[in-house]
Write a structure and sequence with these properties.
Number of strands: 0
Largest sheet: none
Number of helices: 21
Length: 373
């Protein structure tokens, strides 16, 4: 029975390869690779055929490749994870266990990547296995452990698995040292590494420019807005920054006003000009808010136009039309900028007795753009 299955698989592989590869000879050379990937590695046939175009397996190599598969299984990889890893990084099958995989796995296990943490990390970031243990992986893990607890380090590595790929000595450490020298609290820096690590992965000169610019604006390095402002400044080119300033000036804001808004809500300038334009036009031309109200409430600019601003304004108009609330700008700003839970509690669920279909109206207007006259 087993021989019949093998013959059928061999015939199917040959047929598929003859149809997909340029010559019959190529198909014949690849057929063993495909069969091995299907039978020994657990790849679906189509994935095996695709992978065989990136990797060739000779019959003489199977003993060494079998040792790689055995090693992965001994370190917690199940069949599905092994198949996924091979699909993502076929060359893993040609890695040497003793000289490459084993030292790296042992180091990661010793530093907290135990149980399923190890397969999960490798599947998220197979490139880590191509990095030097001594010059990349060890320095990165050791530096992260100085700043983060083991659990936080694991969380950071899963959230941004490429952290272990980066040059921590040449990039991360100098940026962290710079932020500390400017008075940014260590707990703020650790949160940045945990949740927004790309900020400290920038070129050191770029970080220095951003820090200097933010300090010149008078933002306190010890306050929460400093790091947010640095993140925004680093995320854009100097030309983009100047263009954003000009964008707001086109609505009558002075540069000093724009910078004062940035100091209070840095992420306002991170929004795209398209989104900012739609929100500004809506509040100024449709809702008729005074420019001073927009300047005093920059959070209005940061909410999604179709998914938040329009649906909530729709609810606001209904409540005003039924005289359940007064139409005033302060209330509207509060309504737009609240969390979803507080908005539902204060402006939807609270009035269901008076407007039974209000929740349905709100949800339907979130699903499709509703133009408000």
């Amino acid at each position: 029975m087993a021989n019949i299955v093998l013959r059928n698989l061999h015939f199917l592989v040959q047929k598929r390869l003859l149809a997909t590869l340029p010559t019959p000879t190529s198909a014949l050379c690849s057929s063993f690779t495909v069969e091995y990937l299907v039978q020994s590695c657990g790849l679906p046939l189509e994935s095996a055929i695709s992978t065989s175009k990136k990797l060739q397996i000779d019959k003489k190599q199977t003993h060494r490749i079998d040792s790689v598969l055995k090693f992965l299984k001994s370190n917690g990889f199940d069949d599905a994870q092994i198949a996924k890893l091979i699909t993502k990084r076929p060359t893993i099958l040609h890695y040497k266990v003793l000289n490459n995989l084993e030292p790296k796995f042992n180091f990661l296990i010793e530093n907290g990547f135990v149980g399923q943490n190890l397969p999960e990390l490798v599947l998220l970031n197979p490139v880590v296995l191509t990095r030097s243990l001594d010059s990349h992986i060890k320095p990165a893990v050791q530096f992260l452990k100085k700043l983060l607890s083991t659990n936080d380090m694991l969380a950071a590595a899963k959230r941004s698995s490429w952290l272990l790929n980066m040059d921590s000595v040449g990039t991360i450490q100098p940026n962290v040292a710079l932020l500390q020298s400017e008075g940014v609290p260590l707990d703020v820096i650790t949160k940045m590494i945990l949740f927004q690590p790309r900020t400290v992965m920038q070129n050191v000169d770029r970080m220095a420019y951003a820090v200097r610019t933010i300090k010149d604006l008078g933002i306190d390095p010890t306050g929460p807005m400093f790091v947010r402002a640095v993140r925004v400044m680093i995320s854009m080119k100097e030309s983009t920054w100047k263009r954003k300033i000009e964008f707001f000036k086109s609505y009558g804001w002075s540069e000093d006003v724009v910078l004062s808004v940035f100091k209070r809500q840095p992420f306002c300038l991170a929004c795209s000009e398209d989104k900012l334009g739609r929100v500004m036009d809506f509040f100024l031309n449709t809702v008729k808010l005074e420019p001073e109200t927009m300047i005093a409430n920059p959070l209005l600019l940061m909410h999604g136009f179709e998914k938040t601003v329009l649906p909530r304004y729709n609810v606001f108009k209904i409540l005003v039309s039924k005289k359940l609330i007064k139409r005033d700008n302060k209330r509207l700003c509060w309504l737009i900028t609240q969390s979803e839970r507080r908005f539902l509690d204060n402006f939807v669920l609270k009035y269901l007795n008076e407007v039974p279909d209000l929740l349905e109206i709100y949800h339907s207007s979130k699903e499709e753009t509703v133009e408000i006259p």
